């Protein structure tokens, strides 16, 4: 491995909510706590104060909503972040850079960019590096959504190869997936295995590889995280948890037990 660009980012866990990246990238964007506020406003409020005196780490939106999110979080300790080339990751470096540049100008300090699975399949390191750097040169603190359930099932050898590239590109975090099963071109009559046990296995494998090779990467899980399994995800190696703001209080309570 060559030219590692970043050092391991230390995430101080003062409270379970210090792990939480709240999302607002789902289609069912109805508010649940108020009849007078939007879902985006609700998420910002939960992010700023999940319980009195406690804030979440991050709130994440699409590029089109980043200006409003930054405004809603102004004066708080919550990070304003954005998804890039979501959900399929196939927009290329041009799309990724345009979205990252716009989001950075609006005040985003972090990004979750979706990997281009076609380039992984082709082992196109140059193409992947171009896409990653298109984002990291605009938003330094970048995570990559690696679509790991798909890679684990159909291209397991790509996982360590990808980890080395992430470290070289200055990406500090690997998030496992977008939760959008229809993103993947599955073989006919096959289904994707994203069961808890499978996810625990690949998290442990990746965490061990990162530790063995001293890579400056942390792990994030998102999608289908519940009060019943959140502790197991953390134990398997996840530092960050991506979740809907609607579940934040319940997951925090589960991690406090």
Automatic annotation (TrEMBL):
GO terms for molecular function: deoxyribose-phosphate aldolase activity. SMART domains: DeoC (SM01133). InterPro entries: Aldolase_TIM (IPR013785), DeoC (IPR011343), DeoC/FbaB/LacD_aldolase (IPR002915). Keywords: Cytoplasm, Schiff base. One of its GO terms (biological process) is deoxyribonucleotide catabolic process. Signal peptide: none annotated. It comes from the Bacteria. CDD domains: Aldolase_Class_I. PANTHER family: DEOXYRIBOSE-PHOSPHATE ALDOLASE (PTHR10889). This is Deoxyribose-phosphate aldolase. It comes from Candidatus Harrisonbacteria bacterium RIFCSPLOWO2_01_FULL_44_18.
């Amino acid at each position: 491995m060559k030219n590692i660009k970043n050092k391991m980012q230390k995430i101080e866990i003062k409270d379970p909510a210090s792990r939480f990246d709240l999302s607002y990238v789902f289609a069912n964007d109805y508010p649940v706590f108020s009849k007078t506020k939007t879902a985006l406003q609700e998420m910002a409020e939960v992010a700023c104060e999940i319980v009195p005196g406690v804030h979440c780490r991050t709130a994440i939106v699409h590029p089109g909503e980043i200006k409003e999110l930054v405004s809603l979080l102004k004066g708080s300790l919550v990070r304003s972040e954005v998804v890039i080339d979501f959900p399929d990751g196939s927009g290329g470096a041009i799309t990724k850079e345009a979205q990252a540049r716009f989001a950075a100008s609006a005040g985003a300090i972090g990004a979750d960019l979706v990997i281009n699975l076609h380039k992984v399949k082709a082992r196109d390191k140059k193409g992947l590096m171009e896409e990653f750097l298109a984002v990291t040169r605009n938003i330094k603190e970048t995570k990559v959504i690696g679509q790991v359930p798909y890679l684990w099932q159909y291209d397991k050898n790509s996982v360590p190869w990808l980890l080395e590239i992430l470290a070289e590109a200055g990406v500090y975090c690997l998030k496992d997936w977008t939760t959008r099963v229809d993103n993947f071109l599955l073989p006919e009559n096959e289904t994707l295995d994203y069961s808890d046990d499978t996810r625990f296995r690949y998290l442990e494998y990746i965490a061990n590889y990162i530790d063995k090779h001293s890579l400056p990467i942390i792990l994030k899980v998102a999608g289908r995280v519940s009060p019943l399994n959140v502790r197991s995800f953390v134990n398997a190696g996840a530092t960050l948890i991506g979740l809907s703001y609607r579940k934040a209080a319940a997951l925090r309570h589960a991690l406090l037990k």
